[in-house]
Write a structure and sequence with these properties.
The protein is α+β, with helices and mostly antiparallel strands. The chain has one domain: Nuclear Transport Factor 2, Chain: A (Roll). Helix content is 33%, strand content 31%. The chain has four helices and seven strands, in the order H-H-H-E-E-H-E-E-E-E-E. Strands 1, 2, 3, 4, 5, 6 and 7 form a seven-stranded mixed sheet that branches. A hairpin with a 4-residue loop joins strand 4 and strand 5. The longest helix is centred in the first third of the chain and has 20 residues.
Length: 175
C-alpha cells in the first residue's frame, strides 16, 4: 500500500512540476486599440495609393535601407516580380506604377486581418483587386494579396515591408 501511495504522490508531483514548467499560452502582444490604429493606417494607405499621393506614401514607410516593397517589375533582368529595397527604390517604383495609367486598389475590408507579432511589429493581410496598366498589365482588375509588416517607430506605425502577390487563376477542372 505504501508503495502505491508513494508512486501516486511521485507521479502527481512530477505532473505538477511539468505543468508549472510548461510555457504559458502567449497573450496577444497588441491591444485592441493598437490593432484598430493599424487598420486605420492601412485604410489611409489605400486612399493615398488610389490618389497617387507619392509624398504622403513615402511618409508611411519606415525610413530605412531595409524597407521592402515586392511588386511587378518592368525590367526583365529583375524577373516578373521583384523586391525593391530602401526608400529611394520604393519611391521610384511607386511613382513608376502610379504614373503608368489608372491604378485602383480595392481591398476586401471584410477580410482585412491585423495581428501583433511583438509589441513593436504587426502584420496585416488582405485580399484585393488591383486595376493597373503597368509593365504589360492590361488594366483589368485582378486578384492580389497584400501582406504588410508594420513597425512601431516612436509612437507611430510605419510600413517595414509591403508584399503584393498576384493570385494565380484557378486550375481548369479536369473533365
Amino acid at each position: 500500500m505504501h508503495k502505491i501511495l508513494l508512486a501516486t504522490l511521485t507521479a502527481t508531483a512530477l505532473s505538477i512540476s511539468a505543468v508549472a514548467a510548461a510555457p504559458a499560452v502567449s497573450k496577444e502582444p497588441l491591444d485592441a486599440a493598437t490593432l484598430v490604429t493599424i487598420k486605420s493606417k492601412f485604410r489611409r494607405l489605400m486612399k493615398l495609393a488610389n490618389n497617387h499621393d507619392f509624398k504622403a506614401l513615402h511618409d508611411m514607410f519606415w525610413q530605412s535601407p531595409s524597407t521592402l516593397l515586392v511588386a511587378k517589375s518592368a525590367i526583365p533582368s529583375e524577373g516578373n516580380w521583384a523586391g525593391f529595397w530602401g526608400n529611394e527604390a520604393i519611391d521610384q517604383k511607386l511613382h513608376d506604377i502610379g504614373s503608368s495609367g489608372p491604378v485602383v486598389l480595392e481591398p476586401d475590408y471584410s477580410k482585412l486581418r491585423v495581428v501583433g507579432l511583438t509589441r513593436d511589429v504587426a502584420e496585416s493581410y488582405v485580399p484585393m483587386n488591383i486595376t493597373v496598366s503597368y509593365a504589360g498589365q492590361d488594366g483589368t482588375a485582378r486578384p492580389f494579396l497584400m501582406i504588410i509588416n508594420w513597425l512601431r517607430v516612436g509612437k507611430d506605425w510605419k510600413i517595414a515591408s509591403e508584399i503584393i502577390l498576384p493570385v494565380p487563376p484557378a486550375p481548369a477542372a479536369k473533365g
